[in-house]
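Lab notebook, bench 4. Still working through the backlog of constructs that have no structural model yet. Next entry is a single chain of 405 residues. Request: give me the C-alpha cells for it.
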Amino acid sequence: MLSVLSRSNSTSSPSDEPLRVLVVGYNTRHIVCSAKRAGFHVESVSYYEDSDLIKCGDVTHCFRDESPGVITDTDFKSLKALVTGIPYDHAILATGFETLGIPKVAGNPPHLSSFVNDKNCLRGKLESLDYLVPQRFDLEDTPSFPLILKPKRGAGGFRNVLVRDKQHLQRSIEQFHENGWYDFFLQEFIQGIDASASVLSTGKQALTIAINEQLIGLKNLGPMRRFSFCGSVTPLRTSFVRELEEISNSIATDLGLIGTNGIDFIIGNKGPVIIEVNPRFQATLDTIEGALGINLVEAHIKSCQGELVPRARYSRFACRTICFAEHDFYVKKTCEDQNYMDIPQKGTFIECAKPVMSAIGYGKSRDCALNNALHYIETAKKYVGAERSNSELPGDERVSSFKTL
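Model written out:
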C-alpha cells in the first residue's frame, strides 16, 4: 500500500506563481531542478527523498511502498487520487509512471509509452521498419552463447543477465521467478560502445540534441550488476554521430514520439544497433544540460507544443557518475557542494549495491570530465562516512526510507 509524506519550500501564494509543473516518478530530482531553473513552480511525487530534491522543489511528496520497485494498480490509484488535488499546468511522467493516466501530460500519451516500454513489441515494430536491432530468441531455440536474458519491461539494466550456457540460463530463470519476474526473453549479446541519443520531437518533426556515452557497470563506482547504468558522458565522440542522429530522428517520427525521448544503442562491429527506446526524460539530463548549456525541461515543453528549439553546440564535456554502496549503512553526513546530486539525507539507510549519490564533473576532454567526476565521488565516500549501524544517531535523525533503483 502506498503512503505519502509531503514537504513544502513554497513561500508565496499560488496567484504569485508562474506556470506550475507536476513531476511524477521514482526519481524526479533531475527534472525538478531543471524545471526550477526554467522558472516554473514545481511540485513532485517521488520515491526518493534526497535533500537536494526537497531543497529544489516547491512541494515534494515522497511516497513509500511495502514492495519497493513493484508498482501495482493500487499504487496508480493512490497516485491518481493524490494528483487530483494538485493544481498544475503541465504534468511530466518520469521513470516508473510513464503510463499514469492523468490530465495535462506534457509528453507521450500512456498508450504510446506502454507500447514503447514493451521491449518485445518495440523490437517487432522497429524490425518491421528495417531498423537494425539485436536478434531475439525463444527458450526452445538453440542459439550460441553468451546471450542476454532481460525482462520484457524495465529500466537501468540492473536486471539484465549475461548467460554463458544452458545451465547458467536455467539458474538465471529460476532467480527471475524467485523475484516475481515472469515476462522475459533472450537477446543476442553485442559487444561495443554503449551510447544514447537525446531526441526532441513534436510527433512529426524531430531533432537529436545530444549523443551520449553510457557508463555501464564501472566497478570503481562500487558493487553493481554488470549492465547497471552508473552515469553518462556528453558528448560521445564517434565517427557514427551523424548516423546516430539520423536513425534517432527517424525513429522518433516513425513512432510519433512527443517531447524528450532517449534511444539506446550499442556501437558494434556492424555499426549502431538499437537496444531500446525510453519514452521519457533520461538520466543523461544533467550531462546534456551541462555540455550544451540548455534547459531540457523548457525545450521538452516547447516540443510538446510543436516547437523545436534551435540546435545548440557543445561547450565542454560533462560527466555524471553514480556511486553504489560497498555495504549496508546509515548516512552520517550530507554533501552540499554544487558538484553533488541525489544527496541522501542524514540517517538514510542504504543497502549494499544500491546507489548512494552522484557527482558531476566538467572538462575540455572526455577523460578530464570523467576524472573530475570520479574525484568528487571518492571525496564524497570519505565525507558521507558509512556506518553499519545507526545506534549513534538520535531517533529523530534516522530516515526510515532507503534508496533503491
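Notes after review: Residues 389-405 have pLDDT under 50 and may be disordered. Residues 366-384 form the longest helix (19 residues). Flag for follow-up if needed.
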